[in-house]
Amino acid sequence: MTEEDDYIVMGRISGLYGVRGWVKVFSHSQPRDNILRYTTWYLQRDRQWVKTRLEDGRTQGKGVVAKLEGCDDRDAAAALMETTIAIHRSQLPKAPAGEYYWAELQGLRVSNLQGVELGVVDHLLETGANDVLVVKQGPTERLIPFVQGQFVTAIDLEAGEMTVDWDPEF
User: Fold this and answer.
1) Could you tell me if residue 169 is inside a domain?
2) 0.90 cut: is pTM over it?
3) Which one of 15, 31, 53, 169 is at 20 to 30 Å from 141 when CA atoms are compared?
4) What is the DSSP letter of 127?
């Protein structure tokens, strides 16, 4: 695991809110305001993660707004536009047994029950009925329902592997 893998992207600064340094936040967390649970954020500036303290935050309409330490006026907030927000992997609470964070599944090597390599989990999609793994192998992209016990038969985070009951021709 690289140092970059220690950070989990949670959203980005998407706009300005008022004149006192508040920013609008596009949150990837569910529900959206879960991003406010973390008082330490890492902002990606010039390809480096910069530790920043969240002073305050709240939902605002359908979105989230936040006040960051040292960001006290609209100009300072404007300098943060489109900045990626992450947390350190160690900030996540431990997932209950049999449950996984999407960030834990991304990058796992995927094989089927016959040992055929299907690729690597690139990302997941939320469909409503169940989440879907997007497994990429070169130009090939497979969409595999993330249904444990039916399609996903084993996950080994330590080994970085997942076994699925899936036809490689799909």
Assistant:
1) no
2) no
3) 31
4) -
**What is the domain-level CATH number for residue 25?**
2.40.30.60
- What string of pLDDT tens digits covers the 170 residues of the chain? 445 568 999 999 999 999 999 999 999 998 999 999 999 999 999 889 999 999 999 999 989 999 999 999 999 999 999 999 999 999 988 889 889 988 899 999 999 999 999 999 999 998 888 999 999 999 999 999 999 999 999 999 999 999 999 999 88
Domain that holds residue 17: 3-90
Same domain for 78 and 121, yes or no, is no
Cα gap 10→160, rounded to integer Å: 22
> Within this chain, do residues 86 and 106 fall inside the same structural domain, yes or no?
no
Calpha distance 78→12 (Å, rounded): 13
Among 62, 90, 118, the domain boundary falls at: 90
